[in-house]
Each structure stands twice: as structure tokens, then as C-alpha cells.
Amino acid sequence: MLTAEGLSAFSRQVWDKVLSKVKKAVVFMDDSCTECMHWNGAMASLLEAGARDLKQFSSFESGGENEPKAVFVVSTLLKGRTANIIRDIIRLSHFQYCVVFTAVSHSVHLLANDVSADLDGNPVFEQFEEKLCEWMGNMNFTAEVMHCPLLFAPVASQLVLLPAFGDLFPLLTDDLETINAKRPEKKRLGSLSDVDMHCLPRELQIQIKTLTSGLNAMFEFADVREESFALGPMSRLIAGELANHPQSKARRKSAPNKASIVFIDRTLDLTGAVGHHGDSLVEKILTVLPPLPGHRCDVQVDLLELTHLPHTPETQRILAPGCLAQPQDGAARGLWEAMLGGRQKEAVMEVRRHLVEAASKENLPIKMSMGRVTGEQLLTLARLFRSSWGVLESHCGVLQLSMATAHTLTHPELSLWDSCLAFQRLLLQCADVRCEVSVSVQICEVSVSVQICEVSVSVQM
User: Is 446 in contact with 419 (CB distance < 8 Å)?
Assistant: First the structure.
């Protein structure tokens, strides 16, 4: 079956293919793949596999004179801007061996290049290998290009995200008008339910085919034959594309395990994305803390409280921020699972319990307090660990999650959360009332409070 362990094993297997090629190499990786690696072992896994360095996928980066090998890991097609960046990096370097991993399958490259799918081998990848040798300046140098579905970020045992598709959004009425504008009047579509894959722009077709190719690879690994259900026009297209995937037809005939997959358009589930549910600690952390640069699923955690440095803008720039992802720390991983799945009160108490256990293990002077757990109490416990860098290193994962919790509970904007939750519930209760002046007045009042809070926060910064 496609269990939580199976999902993690699939993700590890995918990255093992990359790790097998990074020995003595400089690795260049785009943001989407970096975020997936962030939840799959982070940079430590690359260094343990023998990589010399990890650099941003940018035309302004390059390898050193004594670095003859490069590995490029991208989530996009090997054409256009992606190809240009690879070319620029190679021409600024002295590489003799280049390996390129792309999350886009060869069949999708054929579609993007208007090449027949009946050709033998991987002609698009083979042509790009020749370009790599040309850019390195010697056709006898070594170049490899291969597909690897580097799309999955296992945020938790029961939750996998796909950062590369964060911008993929369901079709709207305006999109139907755009599609019809390019069609003859007699062949114009009446509704979004009439749209098929061939009506979509080429870029959107490539996104959907890349998504379904990655899902098919995951199901192949788990020997699963899926039964798909779709809610919404975009979900219907994705489910249909998965069902018609050339490799999925053979898989469904022989796979011994069964699974159901439900596709839901985000326009039908917006309350889950923007609602103030009020009882999820992780939801509040993701809302109030600043995002980690280049990431969609993680935040920056200020760790200056764990040092003896003064809290100034200058010191903030010298200390790298913490984060929520701690894939190689067993204790932190367990705490993260509890924070993600439990109610806020239970999650905060679990954070305190982990801090107390870690402090007791290190014989630190603990001063327990009764009553409700507050952010200030968590900060006081966390400050005990700054007595030793060795102690900090041993419990770094738990401390990062604890500091994220503490800073969220003490954040100035958190007081507005309960107000927003109350208004949301009030609006739901009054949804069938034609005129409810009191609700409108309260919303206006909280809007003013939000503006005042934003001004005060900007002044403090």
C-alpha cells in the first residue's frame, strides 16, 4: 500500500539518484528542487555524499578553477531561461564533466519541442548533452542528462507538498474568455467543463503533464492502481491526464495494491487556505513568521535569543535563521509531527515537554511554573541552552521549533487572530440574513486595528 513510510521511501529513492552523482561536484539547484531537498535531508545529505558546494541556480554563479565537475538540478524544461542559465554558468567555469537532472520527463520535453513521440531513445536529452559539451569547449568531455521526479517535499509522515506547482491554479471564467478568444466563433466553449487539454496554453499543458508524470512515478514505486475522483474542471483535466498516461495504463493492469486519489480545485477549498481556524499552532506559525527566502513551505526562525549577541539588525544578518524542517533530527521530527497534528494547547505543552526533557538531560537549572504555557516561559527555557555550543548543537532541532512557537505566541499580530476567527464564525451564522449592520461595523473596526498594528510593526523594524 501507499503508506506514509512508502511516500518517504519513494522521496529518498528519488534523491539517492542525485546523491550518487554529486561526489566532488559543485551542485547548482533551483528554488523548487532546493525546497524539496530541504525536507529530504537538507544540504547535509549532499555534503555527506561528497559534494563540494551547493550554489544558487543563477547566471551570476560559477565553479572554481579546481572544480571540474558540476551537477545541475532543476524542476523545469531544459530550454529557454533554464538552458541559458546552465550555459552561462558553464562558460564562466572550467567544467569537464556536467550532469543535469530535470524533474520534467522526456515525453514532456518532446511535447514542448514539437517532436514526435515515436522516436527511439531520448533524442531531446541527447541533443542537450551535445550542447553541454559544446559549452564546456570540448566535445570529448563528459555530459549526462536524465529525468528524476524531484517534485515531492515530505513535510510530515502524512503530508507531502509539491512546491514546483505552487502557482498552478484552477481555471476561472476569465480563462474561458481567453481560450474562446483564440477559437472560431462556431467552436467556442460554453463552460469550463467543456475545456480539454488541447484547449489549454502550452505552458499549462506542460505543468499538468509534469505533475501527472510525477504522481505516476510515485504510484509505480508503490505498485498501486489508483481510482481517481475529481471536483472541479481543473481537477477533472488532471485526473484524466493521469488516467491516460502511457505508463499508468500498464501499471493499473498489474499493480497489486489499490488507492483512491481525490483531486479538488483550490477554488472549491479556499476556506482551508484563508480561513482562521484558530486551533492549529502550525497554521499560526506559518501565518505570522516571515517566509524562508526561496521557500513556500517554511519560515524563518529568529535564533538570536540562543546567543549572547545583542539583538540588532546587524547581528540578524550574521546569524542564519532557523526553520521548521528538521528531517535528520529524530526528536525534532517527533515534536514537529505533534505540532502539526495536535490542537494548539496540546502542541504548546508538547513543545514545553521536549524543552524540559532536553534541559534535564543536560543538567540545566530548570524553574518549572504552573498554569498555562506562554511564549515567555518557552523563551526562558530555551535561553538555558546558550551555556554551551555543544548543548545547542545536540538539541538544535527542538530549539528551532521551540523558538518558532515562542515567537509566534508573543507576536504582536497574533491578538488579531481571535478577532478574525470570531468574525468568520459570525459571518457564517448570518449568511442567510440580508442585512447585518453589526457584522460590517465590526469588520471595519478590525480593519483599522490591523492597519494600526502594521504601522507599529514597521516603525519597530
Answer: yes
| Cα atoms in the Cβ-side hemisphere of radius 13 Å centred on 189 | 20
For residue 429, being part of any structural domain is answered with yes
Q: Do 218 and 328 reside in the same domain of the chain?
A: no
**Three cell numbers, residue 306:** 540562543
Q: How many residues would you count in the chain?
A: 461
Among 332, 342, 299, smallest CA distance to 402 is for: 332
Structural domain boundaries enclosing 453: 419-460
Distance in angstroms (rounded) separating the CA atoms of residues 131 and 100: 12
Domain contains 8:
yes
- Provide the CB-side half-sphere exposure for 232 (13 A, CA): 17
Rounded Cα distance, 99 and 222, in Å: 28
Residue 429, Cβ neighbours under 10 Å: how many?
11
Which residues touch 459 (CB under 8 Å, ≥6 apart)? none
From residue 375, give the alpha-carbon distance in Å to each of 115, 402, 405: 59, 9, 7
What is the average pLDDT value for the chain, to the nearest integer?
A: 86
353 in any annotated domain: yes
Percent of the chain residues topping a pLDDT of 90: 57
In a domain? residue 120: yes
Give the CA dihedral 398, 402, 405, 411, nearest 10 degrees: -140
Closest C-alpha to 337, from 323, 355, 324, 321 = 324
Q: What are the backbone angles phi and psi of residue 374, rounded to the nearest 5°?
A: -115, 165
- Distance of alpha carbon 333 from alpha carbon 155, whole angstroms: 10
- pLDDT tens, position by position, 338-373: 999 888 999 999 999 999 999 999 998 888 777 788
Q: Taking Cα atoms as reference points, which of 202, 209, 102, 222 lies closest to residue 160?
A: 222
- 235/325 same-domain check: no
Please indicate, yes or no, whether residues 346 and 404 belong to a single structural domain of this protein. Answer: yes
Q: How far apart are CA 374 and CA 352, in angstroms?
A: 10
Domain count for the chain: 4
pTM value is: 0.86
Residues 107 and 183 in one domain: no
* Residue type, position 384, single letter: L
Locate cell 449592520: which residue? 437
Note whether 208 and 127 are same-domain residues: no
Q: Report how far residue 39's alpha carbon sits from residue 161's, in angstroms, rounded to the nearest whole number.
A: 10
Q: Alpha-carbon distance 286 to 276, whole Å?
A: 12
Q: Give 402-454 pLDDT, tens digit per residue.
A: 999 999 999 988 777 777 777 777 776 665 555 545 556 656 665 555 444 44
